[in-house]
Amino acid sequence: MQKLTRRNLLRASALASLTPLILTASDPTVAVTPVGRWRTVDDKTGKPRSIVRVWEENGRFFGKVEQSLNPERAGRRCDKCTDERKDQLVVGMVIIRNLELKGDEYSGGDILDPDNGKIYRCKLRVREYGKVLSVRGYLGASMFGRSQTWTREPETGAETDGQRN
To answer: Is 0.85 surpassed by the pTM of this model?
Structure first.
C-alpha cells in the first residue's frame, strides 16, 4: 500500500508542476513577441516574397531580410535607397529598426521598402497567439500608410544570437 501511495504522490506532483505550463501555453494574455522568422507577401501579387528575421537587442526590435523567396530577385540591390543601405544587397539588409514595445504594439522605429527606397514609420502587432504579425508602414499619421500581414515561419535550427544579426 505504501508503494501505491508514493506512486500517486509522484504522479500528483508531476501533474501539479506541468499545470502552469499547460495553462500558460493556452492563455491568450501571455505576451508573445515578434522575435523569429516571418514570411512576407507581395502587396500587388499576393505571392510569398521573403523571409524576415526579427530580433531583440537591448529592448529594441530589428528585422533583416534573411531570404528571398523569388530566385529572380535574390541578388537584387537597393539602388533606390538614400541612406547607408544604398546599393546593398537586399538579402542580409536590416529593414526594420529601433521598434520598442509600447502597450500591445511595437513602434517608435522605422521600416524600409527596398523597392522604392523609402523609409516609413512602423508599427508591429503580434496576433493569433504569435502566428501572425501585422506590419504597418506610414508617413506622418498612422492612417496614411499601408499594412501587410506576415506569417510566422518555423526556425531552421541553425540560428544562434551571433548568426541572426
So the answer is: no
